């Protein structure tokens, strides 16, 4: 399970992974997907549980509005369609309850994007999740991505962070930027974001993950398909990418 993570999560009991196979892919972060979620009275009383129906309706509305109106999501939808993998939002996008450490994810077994309805509560967050996870879906469709291959996983996380997540503001918030290294800030942000994502879904050491990311970084960072440009925050880049899409055959 590839994830859009909020923070790294260890997810262990008494220092031991709960289930090696599930732990390796991050499915424990998606209790509704596993069929293990049920509202707890203690959490209903504090307002954390008990609003699932309202959250799902709001999430599905935000998904629909992003699919119809977001330039970056429309680019990704067109690219997937042109690559032979058209998206049916009723089949390929699911709003679900998740662990609070993730905001979304991509399930390659079902070829489905998960939007975490209890975390991604604003339209801007839903747009970010959809764009990020559609990069993974695009790689799975067009580039024959194998999530069991660590280099493939690292590459798609680099591409998703590069094209849809990182900006100087994001780099600053992650501690990867300063006014003295603006040029390097974006690359550092991408590496940090990719590292967090890899560690969230695979039980490997940080040093090993860093080595894999560094190995594939030059090639994967240079691959701007299908958006064609890195999206900077508070810029017209999303609209420019949308206008340029027909030149690449994405309509």
UniProtKB/TrEMBL annotation:
EC number of the protein: 3.4.24.-
Superkingdom of this protein's organism: Eukaryota
Xref: InterPro entries: Peptidase_M76_ATP23
Basic and acidic residues composition-biased segments: 1-23
UniProt keywords, alphabetically: Hydrolase, Metal-binding, Metalloprotease, Protease
Metal-binding in keyword set: yes
Region listing for Disordered, in residue ranges: 1-27
Enzyme class: hydrolase
UniProt keyword Lyase, yes or no: no
Family: Belongs to the peptidase M76 family.
UniProt protein name: Mitochondrial inner membrane protease ATP23
């Amino acid at each position: 399970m590839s994830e859009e993570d909020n923070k790294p999560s260890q997810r262990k009991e008494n220092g031991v992974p709960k289930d090696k196979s599930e732990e390796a892919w991050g499915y424990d972060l998606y209790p509704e997907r596993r069929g293990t979620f049920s509202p707890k009275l203690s959490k209903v009383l504090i307002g954390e549980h008990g609003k699932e129906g309202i959250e799902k309706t709001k999430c599905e509305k935000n998904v629909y509005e992003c699919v119809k109106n977001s330039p970056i999501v429309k680019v990704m939808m067109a690219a997937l369609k042109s690559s032979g993998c058209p998206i049916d939002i009723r089949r390929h996008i699911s709003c679900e309850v998740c662990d609070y450490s993730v905001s979304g994810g991509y399930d390659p077994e079902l070829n489905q994007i998960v939007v975490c309805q209890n975390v991604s509560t604003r339209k801007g967050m839903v747009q970010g999740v959809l764009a990020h996870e559609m990069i993974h879906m695009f790689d799975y469709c067009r580039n024959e991505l194998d999530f069991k291959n660590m280099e493939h996983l690292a590459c798609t996380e680099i591409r998703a962070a590069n094209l849809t997540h990182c900006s100087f503001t994001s780099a600053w918030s992650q501690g990867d930027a300063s006014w003295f290294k603006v040029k390097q800030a974006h690359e550092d942000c991408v590496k940090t974001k990719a590292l967090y994502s890899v560690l969230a879904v695979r039980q490997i050491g940080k040093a090993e993950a860093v080595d894999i990311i560094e190995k594939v970084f030059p090639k994967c960072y240079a691959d701007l398909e299908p958006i064609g440009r890195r999206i900077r925050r508070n810029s017209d880049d999303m609209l420019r990418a949308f206008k340029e899409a027909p030149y690449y055959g994405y309509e």
